[in-house]
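To make the argument concrete, we let one protein speak, a sequence paired with a row of structure tokens, as a model reads it:
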Amino acid sequence: RRVHGGSLAEGLNVWATTRNTVGFNHGIMSQVDVGSGHAGVVIETNANQSVVFFDNSPVEAAATIVNASSGETVQYGFPLPAAVFRTNAPYSPVMRADYSWSQGVTSNSQLRYLLIHDGIVAYETASVAIGVAEFINITAIVGQKGDQEPAGNPYLCPPPGQGTPQGGNILSVVNAPALNMSWVAWDNASGAAWRAACCNT
């Protein structure tokens, strides 16, 4: 649901007046709040409750997990200032307790979460302002285009005209509220010729 011209507080109020169904991660962003504090949140949900995360969340930063290979407890959540992001996995303790998909340092969801994190950090380190082109790039990198990571290469699409039959990304979308525009790529073809959305333009 889109609330035109609404603030983040208004968006959260709309969220609070609705019922949850199943567990998903959601985001609310507010162009009118840019530069005046928090401009977005991610929300982890199950059927009974929601957990709201602002940027640089201490709860997300405190999330740890046991590395199955080494037995060592390692950091699991890597929040950033002025950015909120998620793939499939939750980072709040209450949501993780009932999360039925795999959790781990090499799970597909965690590796894609880190691709987003690392993409943002790489642009910041290179002093590149993140605009539409940069967000399209990060979004395309995260989309599954072959074997799931770590087996696949998230940075590589086959040449135009070749399929990605091992991929799974059917829709790749970037929204720019300030411009009131969206950029959408979708999958096409079928069978061995099927091509993931993140490899289309």
Summary: The helical segments are 8-16, 58-61, 93-96, 108-125, 132-142.
